[in-house]
Amino acid sequence: MANPWIPRMHLWEIDDQPWFPPFLRGYVQTGLTHAWTVHIPVLQASSPATIVAAVLRRVLGSSVSKHTYIDFCAGAGGPTPFIERALNSQLEASARDAPAPTRRVPATASAAVINGESRAADDNTPSYAAVADPDAKSTVVRGTEADDSDEKNGGDGHGDGRVNFVLTDLHPHVESWAAASKKSDRLTYISHPVDAANAPDDLLQRYGGKGGKKGIFRLFNLAFHHFDDDLARAILKNTVETSDGFGIFELQDRSLTGLFTCFVFGFFIFLIAPLLYWWSPVRLFWVYVIPVVPFVLVFDGLISCLRTRTAAEVEVLLRTCGADAHGWEVRSGRERFLWPVGFLHWIICVKKTA
Predict the structure, then answer these.
(1) What is the spatial distance between Cα 46 and Cα 193, in angstroms, rounded to a whole number?
(2) In what order do the strands lie in the sheet with 67-71?
(3) Quick one: which of 18, 116, 127, 228 has the most CB atoms within 10 Å?
C-alpha cells in the first residue's frame, strides 16, 4: 500500500470494547477466522492463510526453516493453525520430493551409505570401498535432503523439513488453542499471558532451539493495526532486541478497494452462513434475525482499514523504536485472495544476517 489518500486514524472497534457481550465476540472472531480460512472456488485460488504460508516461503527462501514462528496476538487461534498446516505441508513435500544431496568425503569417513555400502565402524576404520580399492581417495556419501537441511537450519532432528508454531496472547484462549494443537505435533501454545512488548526470556529460549539454532519469527495476523504508535514502537523494540524477524499480515488497507472489500465480506457472510453454521440456530439468529455479527464484522472492518499502516509507516516506527534496527530489512507486497478486490497485505522484516 503506497501513499493512501486516507490518513491513518486510530479509532475504536466494537469487538475490542469491554461492554460487547463475550458470546457475540466469539461469533465475530469465528467469522474473522473463516475470512482467513474459507476457500471459495472460482472466486479464490486459495485461502488467505494458505497465501501467507506461500509468502513466507517465497520471501524467506531457504531461511524459512531456520525459525520458530510465534503468534503474539493469537486471539482464539485465528489463522495460525491453518498457516502452520499449509506451510509444513509445503515444506514436508519439498523435503520429500527433492533429490538426495551428495558430497565427497574421505574413504575412511563414516557415513550413512558409502557407494551403496553400510557405514564404516568408525572414522578410523576403512570403508569396504576403501579396502576393495586401496587407491581410493574419496567417495560419495548420499543422505536425505531433509536430514541435510534440518542439520544446517538448526532443526530438532525430525528431518522432515517442518517448523514449529506457538500460540500466545495477553489474554490466552487455552481451550481453543488446546483443541487446535491436538491436530498437529508442530503447533503448541503458552497457557499464561504473554506481553508482546515484553516477551519472557524463558519463552524465547525455549523455542529458540538448542544452542540458539532456531531464530524467533513473530507473527501479527490481523493484529498490528490494533496497536497505537507508542505500543507499536514498544513491541517493535522488544522484537528487534529478542527476535530475528516478524511478519504483519492484514486483509485490509486504507484504500477505496479496501473499504469496499469490507462490504463484500459482509455480503458473503449472509451468503455462506448457512453452510458454515447450519448446526447452530443461535448463530444463524445473530446473523439473519438480528444481524449483529455481520454488522460488527463490516463496521470493525471499515475501522480496521483506517487503522492499518503502510510498510513505510511501519518502517518509521521500526527505525524510531529505540532499538538498533540498522541491520533489519523491510519487504512488503500484496496478494489477491478474493476476486476482484480482496487483497492480503504483508510486511516482512528480518535481520539481514538472519
Answers:
(1) 33
(2) 187-189, 165-167, 67-71, 215-221, 245-250, 342-351, 328-338
(3) 127
